[in-house]
Specification:
Blueprint: E1 12-13, H1 28-31, E2 37-38, H2 39-42, E3 47-49, E4 55-58, E5 61-66, E6 75-81, E7 101-108, E8 111-116, E9 121-122, H3 128-136, E10 140-146, E11 149-150, E12 157-160, H4 171-178, E13 185-188, E14 194-200, E15 204-216, E16 229-240, E17 259-264, E18 274-278, E19 292-293, E20 298-302, H5 308-320, H6 322-325, E21 330-331, E22 334-338, E23 353-358, E24 367-373, E25 380-388, H7 395-406, H8 412-434, H9 449-452, H10 455-461, H11 492-502, H12 511-522, H13 559-575, H14 589-607, E26 616-618, E27 632-634, H15 637-652, H16 661-664, H17 693-708, H18 711-723, H19 732-749, H20 757-775, H21 789-810, H22 817-835
Parallel strand pairs: 1-3, 2-11, 9-17, 19-21, 20-22, 20-23, 23-25
Antiparallel strand pairs: 3-4, 4-5, 5-12, 6-7, 6-16, 7-8, 8-10, 11-12, 13-15, 14-15, 15-16, 17-18, 24-25, 26-27
């Protein structure tokens, strides 16, 4: 990649060393004159840093020296925090606070306008379409500043950089989301905001600003403002937009890449003006089409903050991606270097693709990929990964799950080996994002249980077809064969996706000319090894997602059977915690942590069968692709009933939540008396000293019921009858009937007398849900559907049956007081609902 740069060798030169400003940053004294000063006079006594845009420090203020060729030219501006909010907001190095934007310095008389031009429109210059786009799609103006000095000999102008002391990145929005306290609205304090450091490089400039965000509370006594404040480091990069001959590549929904969406006004397409370019690195091989070294390799730098024991693992994970580039003729595509111990080497220089280790008090993620792309083309100009230090505690999964399940010893060597493997899988995944790849939540569906139990198989193929899958621990019960616990190699989909994004297309000089070849490469979606589906297809919570094959944290081509094995294994582990935790001399916190980790895995699997209910298989294959049929196919009713049986036994039954009392009576925590602040990292007590199993159960059960009875889910199930023959898939009557039988079934048989608190709570909550559905159904509000009338009718029908069954049960003799009170409460809920006027 080549960037426009210039050098000015006048006055004192800082070269590439940082120059530091002071809090007194106002340029008013220098820029307020009626006419710009002569350049030679202005720079007398000033300090100049030569670089892309020379940076001038004069009287404590910062200025930018722009050549005539840079006025109106495309730059890319990024706003990246160099400090975080302790885990509650954007992390250091995250490029997602504000998008990378095209940035202009436009001269208007003796002033310069700082703009973000609208770059969404694709037009041919000097055409009517270009004129229309400018008229229709306005720019955003950041600031207008007076020219401080001009150089008559070469046309250089000097402007103050004070615009960057404002909230260009809109960090105020980050505070609003991170600090949920309306009495403490943090605002930028301009009097305590200053340039902390500036650097000028041949390819880019860095303006590092120290922002003070002060809390303002008008409701405090005597109207005295809250004196607390937070100092945030903000790094602004100004980079010359690439002009390196990069040819964008058009995205295809059958292969998962992040996309830069633009509006094509240069052509009149038949269907849509949207044109989607994939995000990718420009490796620029010397000899396209035959094996050669990348002339612009992706060089990752390992931050000096990465603990020594993890550096080799991180390096090996990054270099693993080279295996996908060799088959398409790009050699040494990925390279890894260690950050040098040099104070002048800046990790936030946009030329450096950093792998950072982030310490936070409250981790928001395990790891996060960082991508900065040219908004005009999708070309990546900087990538990286933030790895949260929480990944260094992944050995807990070995201690609390793997070792007990497999009957293995828990020692430091085994824990460390697991930890390194887990970190390798995380870095493989995140660096895949750096190459432009989206998640692939269908990557778990190609392999069988037998495959995943084979170490030889997983060593070669992985536990999923893609490292971009969210694969759970591949752990099987003791005395069962066992493959790798996590994804350690690239899967077949990864090779397929890299080919689509990066392989040379002979004879294609434009994105459009490459399309026939690319479409042929993408046409094998129906092959289970190459299927792809991402986040948008995995949102089941409110009924949007429909394909049960698109899952997070599932394994094998039969996830229902896999979940059944996992539920049985995990329930057994939770019931036997007292035999393993805590060890002699250790606090009972160890048992509590084991139970919470195992129960989280249990509830994740127990809820998963709900995604099959009312589902349809959704294909991304296009007409004419091999094996392509209708894009929507029903999930057979038999499969939905099979999924419901697992919900009934693993989630809704009393037995699912019955645990060994010798386990439950040790799930407490150690008390702490802290002299420091009340941060959650120091001590965060819960209302109870034990763990409420009934609350765990209620939370999981309500998640599933809210999903299954969401208006959109109900509408979709009701509409299945319009597409498929009766009995081919389930109906709303099935949903209400199966739910009623699983939740209320023991009332008619007399089993209610033996129910515990978890079962009784479930019955009351479900009765209240039915009552609300009948009395106050959700009204339709376009585009969101309301509760279907069929569902309202079935809710009333179920309530009537419940009233009949509960009334009959109350007629039996010998009933204990709690059971009788419970049944009378159910009858009262029904009566109140049936007597109310429906909404």
């Amino acid at each position: 990649m080549r960037f426009l740069h210039s050098r000015i060798g006048i006055a004192t030169v800082c070269a590439l060393l940082p120059c530091f400003g002071t809090p007194a940053q106002s340029p008013a004294a220098d820029a307020g004159a009626s006419a710009p000063a002569a350049y030679a006079t202005f720079v007398t006594g000033a300090t100049i840093q030569p670089g892309l845009i020379p940076i001038i420090t004069k009287n404590g203020s910062i200025y930018l020296a722009l050549k005539p060729s840079q006025l109106g030219a495309d730059f890319i501006e990024t706003s990246v925090p160099s400090t975080g909010l302790g885990g509650f907001g954007p992390a250091a190095g995250s490029p997602y606070l504000a998008p990378a934007r095209i940035f202009h310095f436009d001269r208007v008389g003796d002033k310069v306008v700082l703009r973000w031009p609208n770059t969404f429109a694709q037009v041919n210059p000097s055409t009517p379409q270009a004129v229309a786009a400018r008229q229709s799609l306005p720019s955003s103006v950041i600031d207008v500043v007076a020219i401080a000095a001009t150089n008559a000999s070469d046309g250089t102008i000097v402007i103050p950089a004070s615009s960057f002391l404002g909230d260009i990145a809109d960090y105020s929005a980050a505070f609003s989301q991170a600090i949920d306290n309306p009495l403490h609205g943090y605002q930028l304090d301009k009097d305590r905001t200053f340039f902390a450091q500036t650097k000028a490089f041949p390819d880019n400039d860095i303006l590092r600003v120290s922002q003070t965000w002060a809390s303002s509370d008008p409701n405090l006594i005597d109207n005295v403002p809250d004196p607390r404040s937070i100092e945030i480091g903000m790094t602004y990069n100004i980079v010359a937009a690439p002009n390196d001959g990069y040819v964008p590549r058009i995205a295809d929904p059958r292969v998962g890449y992040f996309e830069q969406v633009l509006l094509d006004f240069a052509h009149d397409p038949t269907t849509t003006r949207n044109i989607n370019y994939i995000a990718r690195w420009n490796f620029a091989p010397e000899h396209p089409g035959r094996p050669s070294n990348a002339t612009h390799p992706l060089v990752f730098f390992l931050s000096n903050g990465i603990p020594l024991q993890y550096r080799d693992t991180v390096r090996e994970a990054l270099l693993t991606w080279n295996k996908a580039f060799v088959p398409i003729g790009i050699l040494n595509a990925i390279q890894v270097e260690q950050q040098p111990d040099d104070v002048n080497w800046d990790p936030e220089d946009i030329r450096h693709n950093m792998i950072r280790w982030i310490d936070t008090t409250d981790p928001q993620y395990g790891a996060e990929a960082l991508l900065t792309v040219d908004p005009r083309t999708g070309e990546e100009i900087n990538v990286g990964v933030n790895v949260d230090a929480v990944e260094g505690t992944s050995k807990r999964d070995y201690r609390y799950v793997v070792a007990p399940a497999r009957g293995l010893s828990d020692n430091a060597a085994n824990e460390n080996a697991f930890e390194q493997a887990y970190l390798r899988s995380v870095v493989l995944h995140e660096s895949g994002h750096d190459l432009g790849l989206q998640h692939n939540f269908m990557g778990s569906m190609a392999y069988t249980a037998k495959d995943l139990q084979s170490k030889a198989f997983t060593d070669t193929h992985g536990v999923a077809t893609s490292v971009m899958e969210y694969a759970p621990l591949n752990v099987w019960p003791k005395n069962t064969p066992q493959g790798d616990y996590v994804q350690l190699v690239l899967g077949p989909y990864d090779y397929h996706a890299i080919k689509y994004g990066y392989a040379y297309v002979p004879g294609a000089a434009t994105p459009e000319q490459a399309l026939p070849t690319l479409r042929r490469w993408a046409s094998n979606w129906n092959n289970p090894l190459y299927r792809f589906a991402s986040d948008e297809d995995a949102d089941f919570s409110q009924g949007h997602a429909i394909d049960p094959r698109v899952q997070m944290f599932d394994l094998t081509n039969d996830p229902i059977a896999w979940c059944g094995v996992q539920l049985h294994m995990l329930h057994g582990l939770m019931n036997s915690i007292d035999t393993r935790f805590p060890q002699s001399g250790q606090p009972y916190d160890d048992a509590r942590r084991a139970f919470l980790i195992q129960s989280y895995m249990y509830t994740t699997c127990a809820k998963m069968p709900a995604d099959t209910i009312g589902g349809e298989y959704l294909s991304r294959a296009q007409a004419g692709d091999p094996g392509a049929g209708a894009p929507l196919q029903p999930v057979p009713r038999s499969e939905e009933l099979r999924a419901w049986h697992l919900l009934a036994t693993g989630l809704f039954s009393d037995a699912a939540w019955h645990f060994n009392p010798n386990v439950l009576d040790r799930l407490t925590y150690s008390e702490v008396s802290s002299l420091t602040s009340s941060g959650t990292w120091t001590y965060h007590s819960t209302p109870r000293h034990d763990i409420s199993v009934s609350q765990l159960a209620a939370d999981a059960q309500e998640d599933v019921l809210s999903q299954l009875f969401a208006p959109l889910t109900l509408q979709r199930i009701d509409d299945l009858s319009t597409k498929y023959a009766s009995g081919r898939t389930m109906s709303l009557a099935d949903l209400f009937g199966w739910s009623s039988a699983s939740i209320f079934g023991d009332i008619t048989g007399g089993g209610v007398a033996h129910d515990g608190v978890i079962r009784r709570d479930l019955q009351v909550r479900f009765a209240q849900r039915l009552a609300k559905m009948w009395v106050s159904p959700v009204a339709a509000a376009s585009p969101n559907p309301g509760t279907p009338t069929d569902a309202q009718a079935l809710a009333r029908y179920t309530l009537v049956n419940l009233q009949t069954d509960a009334t009959r049960a109350l007629a039996r003799s010998g009933m204990d007081e709690m059971t009788r009170a419970h049944l009378e409460a159910l009858v009262a809920i029904v009566k109140q609902a049936l007597q109310a006027k429906p909404g």
